[in-house]
Each structure stands twice: as structure tokens, then as C-alpha cells.
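Could you please review the protein record set out just below?
***
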Amino acid sequence: MIELKKDEETSIKGPYGEIDLVITPCTAKENTQPVLIMAHGFRGSMEGGGRAKNLADLAGEIAHVVRFNFNGSQILSKQIAELEKVVTYVKKRYEGSRIVLLGRSMGGCASLVAASRDIEIKGLVLWATPNDLHLTFLNSLGKAGYLKLKNGENLYLNDERGELILTPEFLHDINKYDLIELLRNWKKRPLLVIHGEKDETVPLAQGQQSYFLAGLPKRLVVIPNADHSFTNHGHKAAEEVFSWLQHILI
């Protein structure tokens, strides 16, 4: 029987304030187990509607799993800086352990940038991740909202996810990153691209393009009928990630 361990809640000092983390310890006995760091998506959280916790529990059989919340900013550069701070913390806490990054949606963009900068990152999972952020936010914010930002105006959002003000910096900052070029240069480290067949926010074509651009080794998993959040397919997506982790880590 697998030994269940209690999640640890902690926080670290980040570049923009405290970063809250939840660590699911590996159930294996070895001290140098791999570490999976999970970054959430736009307006999301480390809970991911329960799907992130489910994946953490599953992956905890073979790796420590670190989830965290970005400190309130939707600006990609700031999220990258916070993720890199979490990576630094993990390297110190689990010295010598292999680190894999998993980014959900926009968190995948931050993970791609961070992993591209750090050759010590051993693998990368792009979960429903765009490679064209302008097209993605034109789709998700609507043409009127997108043009408001592009024309230098603030965009006020108020829906079931809460209230949020996006400034024009949100779009301007995206221009700093050539995700297509980063994917072309991703080589020799394992990559998993996992995408929903019916993703309404980031069309499947983007996930397929990301897969074809990257070098080997790589794997593409398309979940039939799944939407952007894997709403009714979270367990299947988690199982696919776990299977891939077993393949590259054990």
C-alpha cells in the first residue's frame, strides 16, 4: 500500500512579495527523488479546480510536487521571475534532484521561458499551452477587450473568476518573448505537449505546432473531447502526465 503523506504549506520571499507554495512529498523513500514544479494559468490558482491536486497526488508516487500561486500579477515577465525564484528554492531544498516544470496554459509560457534559460531543468510539460499569446488573448478577451489594451486603455474584468484590471503593459510585455523560437531551440530534453481536442481558448493547432517545432525527445497527447481546462477529463490528463514522468524519471 502506498504511504500517504500530508501536503506541506509554506511560503518563500519572491521578487514581488511572498509566494505561497504547497508541497506534496514523494512517497518513495529516497532523498533525491525528482521534483515536479507546477505553474498555473491566466487568472488561475495552484488548486486548478482540484485537477492540480489530483495530479500532485498521483505524481507524488515518484516525485516531490511543488505547486504555487503567482503573486497576483498577470504580467508574463513577473510570472517568469516568480517561477525562477521557486526553482531556486527547490534546487536548494532538494539538492541534486532532477527538476521538471509543468505549466498550465499561460503558466506553460512562463515554464517554457524559464526552462529554456536553465539547462538544469530536465523536462517540460506544456499543458494546454499557447505559443501565440496575442491570438490567444484576442480569442479569450474578445476583440473589443483586446483592442482596448492594444490602444493603451485599461481593461476591467468582472466575472465568475473575480475582478481584475489588465493594463496595456500586459500585451506589451508579451512582445518580449518569441515562444516559437524557444520551441525551435528546445532540444535533447524531454517535452510533453498535452492538449484538449476541443480547447476553445487555445486551439489544438497551437499545441500541435508546438510539438512539431520542438526537437527530440518529445511526445504529443491529445485528449479526445477535452476543453481548455480538461473539465471532465482531468483524471485522464493526469494519468498521461504521470505515465510520461515514469518514462523519463524512472
